[in-house]
């Protein structure tokens, strides 16, 4: 489903010095693998890797293939790929504070809308409500985003990411703000999405989250290595 080959990315720090973040990194899902946990020290590049997989960061060398097709580094093609295939839970949630919870999740549903085709607003609202129920936030539809706790905001971000039923779900520390019970509920939801055929890449520092993934990889020295 997802394959990265020889991915190299070089950064420049504030002083203009070069730093090789990814150095010929390879990543491939075996047929039986639905979820991959990416572990690694702070600053090793986990979020950057997810941004590349999402088609948000296009400045790298190497090959990225998803669903048998090379993902273009041309911005509009990458945006189309993202719109059609990817749901992403970012580390800082990136919710829009001027919209209520329902409208934030609706952004995830309607982003898949094909340009020129009318959006079925009623069906979109029903889907957004369903996703809020799935993350345990039924009843929060009208809440303002800036009144939410960290864990509630994180679950809104998860609801938005899964709302369009994407083939690839990318999640950056998706349970970092959740208590143990809520984390377990979200991990069960992720397991269900995988049983339904979705693929996930999860960046995490949590051993619990990593153990719920099929494969665990450590990002170190600019490459991914297998860990138990
Ligand atoms: N646009 C950029 N320009 C320069 N450096 C960057 C840029 N984006 C990220 N970095 C640097 O790249 C490194 C990797 O960052 P990234 O956020 O991917 O790490 P991470 O493994 O997700 O860290 P954490 O576990 O703390 O979230 C960091 O040292 C960061 O400062």
Automatic annotation (TrEMBL):
GO terms for molecular function: ATP binding. Keywords: ATP-binding, Nucleotide-binding. SMART domains: AAA. InterPro entries: AAA+_ATPase (IPR003593), ABC_transporter-like_ATP-bd (IPR003439), ABC_transporter-like_CS (IPR017871), ABC_transpr_LolD-like (IPR015854), P-loop_NTPase (IPR027417). Residues 2-227 form the ABC transporter domain. SUPFAM superfamilies: P-loop containing nucleoside triphosphate hydrolases. Transmembrane segments: none annotated. The keyword Electron transport does not apply. Pfam families: ABC_tran. This is ATP-binding cassette domain-containing protein. It comes from Oerskovia merdavium.
């Amino acid at each position: 489903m997802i394959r990265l080959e020889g991915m190299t990315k070089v950064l420049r720090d504030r002083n203009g010095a070069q730093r090789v973040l990814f150095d010929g990194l390879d990543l491939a899902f075996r047929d039986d693998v639905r979820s991959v946990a990416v572990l690694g020290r702070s600053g090793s590049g986990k979020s950057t890797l997810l941004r590349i997989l999402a088609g948000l960061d296009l400045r790298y060398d190497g090959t990225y293939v998803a669903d048998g097709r090379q993902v273009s580094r041309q911005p509009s093609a990458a945006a189309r790929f993202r719109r059609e295939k990817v749901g992403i839970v970012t580390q800082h949630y990136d919710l829009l504070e001027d919209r209520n919870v329902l409208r934030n999740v609706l952004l995830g549903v309607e982003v898949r809308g094909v340009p020129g085709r009318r959006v079925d607003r009623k069906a979109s609202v029903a889907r957004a409500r369903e996703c809020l129920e799935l993350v345990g936030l039924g009843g929060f539809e009208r809440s303002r985003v800036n009144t939410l706790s960290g864990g509630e905001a994180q679950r809104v971000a998860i609801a938005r990411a899964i709302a369009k039923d994407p083939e690839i779900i990318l999640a950056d520390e998706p349970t970092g703000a959740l208590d143990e019970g809520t984390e377990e509920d979200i991990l069960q939801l992720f397991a269900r999405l995988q049983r339904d055929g979705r693929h996930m890449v999860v960046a995490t520092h949590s051993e619990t989250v990593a153990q719920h993934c099929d494969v665990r990889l450590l990002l170190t020295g600019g490459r991914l290595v297998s860990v138990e």
